[in-house]
Design goal:
By secondary structure, the chain is of the alpha/beta class. The chain has 2 domains: about 40 residues; about 240 residues, Rossmann fold, CATH 3.40.50. Helix content is about 30%, strand content about 20%. The protein is built from 7 helices and 15 strands.
């Protein structure tokens, strides 16, 4: 009993220390931004206004459902799964609840991650290879284009779920539009989004979103509460956010999504304060 109590106290103290550490990091970052010492050159008000205007999420003819766990690893996607061919999911680590949800609907998943030897559990509809997703093919890396062409050359309506710790930008920019259009639903956790406040970072992130938004609409945004939002000018940006995209040809009707969080949204870190989506991401005022 005493041992269990001691372990609980150690765990609680660690969580408190980590929460304080994250808060201090956020405050330091905001101070550096305001004093022009964090970024080389700040993004302009016009750039930021333009970005937020085009990235507002929409309601469509498909309601959202939750795929995966009730915590980190679960995502909201449109209920448009009837003709999904496959799921491609780089960045396995120790989590595969999203892919497992799809296999229960008889949707196979291709998984790739060089950092692990296998998925966290066996599933006959999983196809795993020990590779990182990258911008060139090598012994350790595979490109999205070559992966899709090799595994599912006839793919028409796939799902792409990608949480690859900041490498999503190079993957989006190095993948062909033809390959991206083979997916009707794309779920990406974007990292370091606070670099939208930096001119160089803004250009990189903006290019990625512009490429995706040619063929897709944003249908959901959910902040990961592991990191607190960074505030600058009139904007608030959570550094980690999950975006769900739906291919435009699937959309018959659309309107602005204005109610956040969605009832199905869950905290990524259950015992940490939630991070609501800042209004600059969906409000027109």
């Amino acid at each position: 009993m005493l041992l269990a109590s001691a372990k609980l106290n150690v765990s609680t103290n660690f969580e408190i220390k980590m929460t304080i550490k994250r808060k201090i990091k956020t405050l330091i970052k905001e101070w550096l931004i305001k004093n022009g010492r964090y970024f080389g050159q700040s993004s302009t008000q016009t750039d930021l206004e333009s970005f937020f205007k085009k990235t507002k999420p929409l309601l469509t003819n498909f309601e959202l459902i939750r795929a995966g766990d009730e915590s980190d690893g679960g995502y909201l996607i449109p209920n448009d799964l009837s003709d999904v061919d496959f799921c491609f999911s780089p960045g396995v680590n120790a989590e595969a609840s999203f892919e497992n949800f799809l296999t229960q609907r008889n949707i196979p998943s291709f998984l790739a991650d060089y950092s692990v030897e296998a998925p966290p559990f066996e599933n006959k509809l999983f196809d795993f290879e020990k590779k990182y997703l990258g911008s060139c093919d090598s012994e350790m890396f595979i490109t999205l284009d070559s992966w899709v062409n090799r595994k599912a050359p006839s793919l028409k309506n796939g799902i792409l779920q990608m949480d690859i710790e900041g490498h999503e930008y190079s993957i989006i920019l190095s993948s062909s539009a033809k390959t991206l259009r083979k997916f009707k639903i794309i779920v990406i956790e974007f990292h370091d989004l606070d670099y939208l406040f930096d001119k160089f970072g803004f250009n990189l992130i903006n290019l990625c979103f512009e490429k995706l938004l040619k063929d897709f609409e944003i249908v959901h945004i959910h902040p990961n509460n592991y990191l607190a939002p960074i505030n600058f000018k009139n904007y608030s940006i959570p550094p980690l956010m999950e975006f769900t995209f739906l291919r435009k040809d699937r959309i018959i009707k659309k309107s602005s999504a204005i109610n956040f969080p969605h009832p199905l949204d869950k905290r990524n870190v259950a015992n940490q304060i939630d991070v609501p989506l800042p209004s600059c991401w969906y409000s027109n005022t």
